[in-house]
Every structure is written in C-alpha cells, then in structure tokens.
Amino acid sequence: MSALAAALVLAGCSTARPPAEVHLELPNQYREQANLDGAWKLAAPADDKDRGAWWTVYGNEELNRLVVAATESNQNLAIALARVKDARAAAGVVDADRGVQADVGFGPTRSGNAQGASTTYRAPLSFSYEVDLFGRLSDASRAAQLDAQGQEAAYRSVLLALQSDVAQLYFTIRSLDSEIDVLRKTIALRQEALDLAQRRYDAGDTSELDVAQARTEWATTSAELEGVTRERAQRDHALALLLGRAPAEFSLAAAPFNAPIVTVPAGLPSDLLERRPDIAQAQRQLAAASARIGAAKAAFFPRLLLTGSAGYESDELRDLFKWSSRSWLLGPLVGTMLSMPILDGGRNRANLARADAGYEATVANYRQQILVGFQDVEDNLAALRTLDRQMVFEEQAINSAQLAARLADSRYRNGSASYFEVIDAQRSNLASQRARIRSAGQRAVASVGLIRALGGGWQTEPHGELQTGQATPVALARNP
C-alpha cells in the first residue's frame, strides 16, 4: 500500500515539462508610417478581441448584404467549421484517456482437465485507470486542446479572408463598371469622329488617311471594351463562387463606382498585428508542439495502471445473477500494474526526435507568420500612401487631357490641325481617365487589404468612429 500511496502522490507531477513558449519581439510602429525609434515589445496573440463588422465602415448596403450572404453560404468556410468540430472531437478522444475506463460483458468459457470439462458463465464489469504520473496524458490532452484552438483560429482566418475577398472583388467590379462606362462614351465619340472624317473626305477637305485612322481608333477602343467586359465577367463569376453559388445563378448588376474614402489614423501600433488569426493559429500550433515534447519525454518513464473487475460467475446459467455468484478480481499490488519500457527498438527516442523536430518547425512557422504579417501591413500602407499621391497627379492629367482634346478637335474642325493631333489628344484623355478609375479601385482594395492584414481593423477599443474587425463566427457561437 505504501508503494501505491507514493505513486498516487506522484500523479500529475511531471518531471518532463515542455520547453517554454517562444516570444518574438516586434517593432512598435511600421516603416511605411513612421520612423522606428528602436523600441521593441513582445508579441502575444489577441485574436479573441471582437472588432465588429468592419466592412460597414464603407457605408455600402450592397456590400454589407454580399458579405453576410458569403458568410452564410461559402463552402470553404463550411469546411473550416467542420475541421473545428473534428479537432474538438479529437481533443475529447485524447482527454478521455485521463478518465476511468469501464466495460461490461457476458460470455461462457469452456475449460477442462484430466478429471473432465466444465462451462463457466461470467458477467463482469471491468475497469481501469491510468495514473498520470509524469504528465504524459495531461500533455497529450493539452496538445489536442491547443490543436482545436488552432483550428478555431484557422476558421477565423478563413472567415476574415472571405470577407476581405468579397469586399475587394466588389470594389474591383465597380471600378470596372466605371471603366466600361468611360469606354462606351469614348466609343460614341470615336463614332462621331469617324462620321466627321467621312463627311470631310466626301467633301474633299481631307484625305482617306483620316478616315482610316478614325476607323482604327473606333475599332481599337471597341476591342478594349470587350477586354474589360471579359475581365468584369470573370470577377463576377469569382464573386458568385465566394457566395456559394454557381455563376449562372448570380450576376451583380452594373453600377457606378463611388470610391470610398477611409482614412488610416497616424501612428498605428504594431500590437494590432497580434489580432491576426493566422498568427494566433501559428502560436497555438507552437504551444501544442511544445506539449507533445513533454508527452514524448514522459513515455520514457513508468506507467501506473489501476485495474479490476466485479460481477457474477457461475457454472450454471440459471444461477449467474444470484447474489451467491458474485465475484471480483484485482490485479497485482491491489489492482495496480506498474510498467516501464526497457526495450522498444528505439521507438520512444524516435518519437521524441520527431516531437523536437516538429517543435523547431512550428517555431520557424510562427516567426514566419509574424514576418509575413508585417509585410502585408507595410505593403498596403505603401499602396495607400503612393496611390493617394498618384491620384492627385492623375486628376491633373485628366483636366489637361480634356482641355487638349477639346482644343485639338476644334482646330481639326477649323482645318488648322491634322487628325493625328486629334487622335493623340483623345488617346491621352482616355488613358488618363482609365488610370484614375483603376487607381481609385486599387486604393479601395488596398484599404481592405490593410484591414485584413491587421486582423480586422485598426481600432484598439470597441468604440469610436471606425468599428472594424471580424464578425463573431455565428456557427462557432452556436457550438461553443
């Protein structure tokens, strides 16, 4: 009994604790927004903070409806949710090993010797319980629970990516709608220019070259319209897929592009990056790998198993469940069995090596995810900064190009300029308008990209003018 008491005292006391969790230092600010002052801080996941429905900052009801529809019907999101359920169930399976295992049975056995043969009927209730001496079971359970938490973070990552993709596709489609509108108006002007050139040629005021050039410009612009229309159709098909629908079942009606103006506040703190769900997933994978090292080390130490059974046993089936037929059985050392591996062909050592290698891989993955997160933020900050300046120059170019086009057309109608000047001015006017539209679309896409890169917004508090962040997963809320 003293040996058993000592073993029970050791239960839960692990001599093979996992290594400490890795911390990664982060700069306080971003290079594209401010000069670094040399201060650093430790990273800590904060993906559980609610940032609200961030897409509503754009004030577009149609976009709001599309995001909600995608959240309800997207198949990749359904897959991610199923993986969360699977990981939670797997954690339950692993955790079950820490409890008492009991089985009930019934069956006859036939035995014999030199004196004869007999049949014995048994109805036993068997039980077993492994005392977690060195933390093997608790470490395995902790690793499985962290795996489940990692899948929950993966779900949030898929959700945030889905919401961002819908918003970015929506703004891209709307910018293409505006570009198509400009091209159609330009084609109408090209047709008027062609008619004018034809009339002047018929009157003998110009050569056939002007007619050919005008027809070329009309055909070229018409071809460009078909290319942009094709691109718009492909983006529309991609949006249908995000909504969980076939392209034939969905079509986003054309509408003008009202470029949203979302101003990024100065001095974004780098700890906003810690809310990214992919970084949280990597951190939990790291912690799970750390726990698996503890479980692998504990496999080298003894295991204590408490066993026993109780029930009924009789030579006659009719007497099996009588009180006089009751029986019980305990193993050696009052129902205990202490075992320790001696020869296993190097299995435990190989498992420990695998756990160490897995831990090293997750450390590298954790660091890489944080670095990727910084790159995403810096890229989108740079895009917003340069696009703002680019659009100012493009607005100036549009004003100048429109003036040049009007002057060239007037001079051509008066016979004081060649048609080549008209063509050149019209080309510049069309190019400047299309460039301005594309830049506005790219800026909207970059603003969504920044929100996504920051894990769902840049508000540090749940109150304020801008309520951004991922929505609480409805399916997960129903299945805590």
Automatic annotation (TrEMBL):
Keywords: Lipoprotein, Membrane, Palmitate, Transmembrane, Transmembrane beta strand. SUPFAM superfamilies: Outer membrane efflux proteins (OEP) (SSF56954). The keyword Repressor does not apply. Residues 461-480 are annotated as: Disordered. Its main location: membrane. PANTHER family: BLR4455 PROTEIN, OUTER MEMBRANE CATION EFFLUX PROTEIN. Gene3D superfamilies: Outer membrane efflux proteins (OEP). GO terms for molecular function: efflux transmembrane transporter activity. It is a lipid-anchor. This is RND transporter. Belongs to the outer membrane factor (OMF) (TC 1.B.17) family. GO terms for cellular component: plasma membrane. InterPro entries: MdtP/NodT-like, OMP_efflux. It is found in: Cell membrane.
